[in-house]
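Working notes for the structural subgroup meeting. M.R. asked for a predicted model of this chain before we commit to crystallization trials. I am recording the input and output together here so anyone reviewing the notebook later can reproduce the run.

Input as submitted:
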Amino acid sequence: MRLAAIVERVDPRVRELENLPPRPSSLLHGSKTATTFTMNGIQFLYEALEGQKTGAFLDQRENYAAAAQYARGEALDVFCYQGGFALHLAPRCSHVTGVDSSRPALEVADRNASLNRHDNHPEIEWIEANAFDLLKDYATSDRHYDIVVLDPPPFAKSKRDLEAALRGYKELNLRALKMLRPGGILVTCSCSYHVSRANFLEMLRSAALDAHRTLSLIEVRGQAKDHPILLDIPETSYLKCVIASVR
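Returned structure, recorded in token form:
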């Protein structure tokens, strides 16, 4: 296969930490930076010079497929970005709503949905909103869902952020638990290395207690196998994905 393009993605913060001069991301070889790729049989648009990180959360690939196994009825995907979870849930659901605060991300999500639209798939509703505000409104207005996905950005980028991060995770999960119908499925994630698996499960236990709901763990997952965990580099174990049934 002939190499079509090479793109250098620059993280300004990392260059600053390394005392390197600022430099923009750029196309090093070839003429095109946009393409499509397929993940778990679903097509996604890819623009190499835009989006977060490389433009796709490939570490969630196996978790997308796992969540789809439990999808049914009405689904809510919060922090949906470009539609990773929402597009995987859609074939098994009657209605899917994706929520994100980024208008550009939702525009790409809608284009991704168009790539994968089939007669038996529901139209996905995309909502631009602050997740905390929306979940608070939905929980108090008696909205109910059969599956809720929470995949927020990292809340704890350092140890000193841990306490505030756990409060944020608890608020999100508490709202989601209140909106799930009996027997509903919660898929909740954290990509913060400083939030350990034990921290995350304890936060979920506390949220369920406050919401007066019972959580039964179905799967406790991590990142995809192509993001290996190295025992001598603990930072490589960072992603938590819990799938639980709610009563």
